[in-house]
Amino acid sequence: DGNGRLARLLTNLRLMRAGFPPIVLQRRIRKSYYDALEKADDGDLTQFAALVARDVGSALDLWLEAAA
């Protein structure tokens, strides 16, 4: 869906402007992602922030492996 793609693109833009690598949301966590978004819509950003932080960590690990 176009809105979802745009939201993920804007998330990555914000991450990259802050000096972080872009993230790729894996299909295997799609349900967790949608659950986190629903909670974020209700004002609880905890699960969404944890999901993004984990994926940023994974992206950094990949970058470090590639640089080694």
Question: What features would you highlight for this structure?
Answer:
single chain, 68 residues, mainly alpha, 3 helices, 74% helix
Detailed description of the structure:
- The protein is mainly α and 68 residues long.
- The chain has one domain.
- The chain has three helices and no strands.
- The longest helix has 22 residues, at 46-67.
- It is globular and about 40 Å long.
- 4% of the residues are buried.
Topology:
Elements: H1 2-17, H2 30-41, H3 46-67
Percent of residues in beta strands?
A: under 5%
The assigned structural class equals mainly alpha
Q: How much is the radius of gyration in Å? A: 13 Å
Average pLDDT for all residues: 92
Number of strands: 0
Anisotropy-based shape:
globular
Number of domains: 1
SS element count, helices:
3
Listing every helix as H and every strand as E from the N terminus to the C terminus, the arrangement reads HHH
Largest sheet: none
Percentage of residues assigned to helices: over 70%
* Weakly predicted, low-confidence segments: none
- The N- and C-terminal alpha carbons lie at a distance of 37 Å
TL;DR?
Helices cover 74% and strands 0% of the residues. It has three helices and no strands. Helix 2 (30-41) packs across helix 3.
